[in-house]
Specification:
This protein is α+β, with helices and mostly antiparallel strands and about 375 residues long. Helix content is about 40%, strand content about 15%. It has three domains: about 110 residues, 2-Layer Sandwich (Potassium Channel Kv1.1, Chain A), CATH 3.30.710.10; about 70 residues, Serine Threonine Protein Phosphatase 5, Tetratricopeptide repeat, CATH 1.25.40.420; about 100 residues, no CATH class. A four-stranded antiparallel β-sheet has the order 7-8-9-10, with no helix packed on it. Strands 2-1-3 form a three-stranded mixed β-sheet. A three-stranded antiparallel β-sheet has the order 4-5-6, with no helix packed on it. β1 and β2 form a beta hairpin.
Length: about 375
């Protein structure tokens, strides 16, 4: 007679099996393969490797020499990443950090362990900032991780002014750097920052990079740069005066700047501004989406192009409620104050006014809350 096993008992059964295998590894019992990475040896079990990794399963079942070899050398994989992945296999724990996530992801990609790679990819997305997005972008491009590549590229271009202040961008190859500074999509307000970055990148390894200076200068839109700034750049960077090609490019730029007719150079993304009408609030449920349900987005409308752009609402799914005050400052900082939605008031009756600020990451952040303050008639409530 077959007995049904409860889910809890099945979980316990699986956990007991994992513990038994882990203990066997710790006691070096029934070890039948040794992985070698960077000269460090990792004794383990073929069955465990094959169970988690299609790469090892294919290796141990292909009928070739690897099936009988006791030692398997792993090239281009760090010892730390092998240790992390084996710990995941035997202990159900994946210990990743900013320092090792890319090497672990590379090892998981090599071993065809999709679940580990997915965790590493999510970690990189969640911890992306101006100091690491460049490395994440080129790493993702190298291994063909499209989602990670797309997100990191958008972050890199959107936050380029801040990214250019970090050293990571100085480490990229010349062809990568050229592709970056060519783009119209860089979110910068002044072309001077591109010239500064080019000179900084060359000076980072002047012996090897000076030969690329002419090619790089051709991608800088010198006609958009203030002439006095350009003169100061020449004084501070004598390497610009040591190359006839650089001198010709700069002289032509000065001539173009003096020409009264409008230049034909494209402006980069952050150099143009558009007046938009922001529509937000006065709806406890947000606005209706194209699927006729309520979403967590507010919208901006461009009267000139007759286009609508969506942004996250301050209250997300709950909606902001009635907006009583809205301010746009000179630097385009948007601050709105409104009465909290009815559902939240019912939960927290002493907090009914909330103030939010729109930030560049396309979302509103809560600045603070006012307790028991009635904005509509500007008087204090006493309960």
């Amino acid at each position: 007679m077959e007995c049904n096993i409860e889910a809890k008992e099945k979980y316990q059964h699986s956990w007991n099996l994992l513990n038994k295998i882990k203990n066997m590894k710790e006691l070096a019992e029934m070890i039948d393969v040794v992985l070698i990475a960077e000269g460090e040896k990792f004794p383990c079990h073929r069955l465990v490797l094959a169970a988690f990794s299609p790469y090892f399963k294919a290796m141990f079942t292909c009928g070739l020499l690897e099936c009988t070899q006791r030692e398997v050398i792993l090239y281009d994989i760090t010892a730390e990443s092998v240790s992390v992945i084996l710990n995941y296999m035997y202990n159900a724990a994946l210990e990743i950090s900013n320092a090792n996530v890319q090497t672990v992801a590379m090892a998981a990609y090599f071993m065809q362990m999709e679940e580990v790679f997915s965790v590493c990819q999510k970690y990189m997305m969640d911890h992306m900032d101006a100091s690491n997005c460049v490395g994440i972008y080129y790493f993702a491009k190298q291994i063909g991780a499209e989602d990670l590549s797309d997100k990191s590229k958008k972050y890199l271009y959107q936050h380029f002014a801040e990214v250019s202040l970090h050293d990571e961008i100085l480490e990229i190859e010349v062809h990568q750097f050229l592709t970056l500074i060519k783009s119209d999509d860089l979110n910068i307000s002044r072309e001077e920052s591109i010239l500064d970055l080019v000179l900084k990148w060359v000076n980072h390894n002047q012996q090897l990079r000076t030969e690329h200076l002419v090619e790089l200068l051709k991608q800088v839109r010198l006609e958009l740069i203030n002439p006095s700034f350009l003169r100061q750049a020449l004084k501070r960077n004598t390497m610009l005066l040591c190359d006839a090609g650089c001198i010709d490019i700069i002289q032509n730029a000065f001539k173009a700047i003096k020409t009264p007719q409008k230049h034909s150079l494209n402006l980069r993304y952050g150099m143009e501004t558009t007046s938009l009408l922001l529509c937000i609030g006065n709806n406890s449920s947000g606005i209706r989406s194209r699927y006729r349900n309520y979403g967590d987005a507010s919208f901006c409308y461009d009267p000139a192009l007759q286009k609508t752009y969506f942004i996250s609402s301050p209250k997300y799914g709950e909606g902001l409620g009635n907006v009583y005050t809205g301010v746009v400052m000179e630097n385009n900082t948007i601050i709105v104050a409104g009465e909290a939605s009815a559902s939240k008031i019912s939960r927290q009756k002493n907090k009914n006014v909330e103030i939010y600020r729109f930030v560049s990451s396309n979302m509103f952040v809560n600045l603070f809350q006012l307790s028991g303050f009635d904005v509509s008639n500007n008087r204090r409530k006493y309960c």
